[in-house]
Design goal:
heterodimer; A: Beta Polymerase, domain 2; B: alpha/beta; Rossmann fold; 4-stranded parallel beta sheet; 4 strands; about 10% strand; globular
């Protein structure tokens, strides 16, 4: 399937839920409404012609000052068409919640945990939403723009110096 | 020039217990290779035949802290890893020494970030800091030799187990 056919097929199926389709140097991005993300993911994976079976990455962008603060970014790949696709869904800060796509792509499990850890985005229906890198009980989300680079003093426990 | 020269003369030497224990200790410093990141590669290189840490009695890298008296912390220590490093340090028997190998362990190095401890001296008593990113093997060998000089000045009674001292004084 050609790129034009892929994008038009998705646009045809979901109509207004697909907000924007952009292309930059051969990379195609799809902006979608966040409440339709699981439906779209299911379609992309299970459609005979598309078969985006591989979820390579899930991450987020913190726009800091925008009204809709966070954009969740998914990178998926179709072996059948040798085609990469980027899906973006923008959500507001209050509350930062989006549906989990682990039911579609199991590999999204740890990516979503990482995104939760770093940005504090809650993935609804995620089977095991724990922190990935930071210790349990850590109160902040380090990749948010308001978090200082050197961290918050005393927020991470350190063993006491002997003697 | 060594001990055998003494043997051909009178057949005995005079020394102090402190001196001979310190001499024995400094001649066989067994390192605990706490190789956390890239500095570990240079640490391995310093033990291989080209640089040969064995010349200074420190070739016996033990992977159990219970047999070591020198911890070479070689690599970036994150806050999460700090707990592990400290736990391993606690398992080493007294007396023990610590080398902070490289920029990361000495000061956080290029990782001026929330997740990296900005110098392991915040939670460990460091004896020798080593500059470099990573330090050359010669530099690490120099650090071990500095530790040896430090050990040579110690007195055996400084390291008696505290519980044992309490027993003796009872």
């Amino acid at each position: 399937m050609e790129q034009k056919n892929i994008t038009s097929k998705i646009k045809e199926k979901f109509g207004e839920s697909v907000l924007e389709i952009t292309e930059f140097r051969g990379d195609v991005s799809l902006s979608v409404t966040p409440n339709k993300i699981v439906e779209i993911a299911e379609f992309l994976k299970n459609d005979e012609d598309l078969q985006f079976v591989m979820c390579k990455d899930v991450t987020a962008i913190d726009w800091a000052t925008r009204k809709n603060r966070f954009t969740i970014v998914y990178h998926v790949y179709s072996f059948k068409n040798n085609f990469n696709l980027r899906i973006k869904a923008t959500i507001s800060e209050d509350p930062p919640v989006i549906d989990s796509v682990t039911s579609v792509w199991r590999s999204a499990n740890w990516y979503e945990r990482e995104t939760y850890d770093m940005y504090g985005i809650n993935f609804r229906n995620h089977p095991d939403l724990r922190r990935m890198y930071m210790p349990e009980g850590f109160e902040y989300h380090p990749l948010r723009k308001e978090f200082p680079v050197l961290g918050i003093p005393g927020s991470l426990p350190l063993p006491e110096k002997p003697e | 020039m060594g001990l055998e020269a003494k043997l051909t003369q009178d057949g005995f030497i005079t020394t102090t217990i402190d001196a001979i224990i310190a001499w024995a200790r400094k001649s066989s410093v067994w390192p605990m290779p706490m190789g956390i990141s890239c500095c570990a590669i240079e640490m391995i290189a310093s033990a291989d035949p080209k640089y040969d840490l064995a010349r200074f009695g420190s070739e016996v890298m033990r992977f159990t802290p219970r047999q070591c008296d020198l911890m070479i912390v070689a690599g970036t220590v994150t806050y999460k890893m700090a707990q592990v490093v400290r736990r391993i340090y606690d398992q080493m028997p007294e007396p023990k020494w610590v080398i902070a190998m490289g920029a990361c362990t000495s000061s956080g190095g290029m990782y001026r970030s929330y997740n990296v401890v900005q110098g392991i001296d915040q939670f460990l008593p460091v004896d020798v800091y080593t500059a470099g990113c990573p330090p050359r093997p010669e530099n690490l060998i120099n650090a071990v030799m500095t530790i040896q000089q430090k050990i040579a000045k110690t007195r055996a009674r400084d390291f008696q187990d505290k519980p044992l001292l309490e027993l003796q004084n009872r």
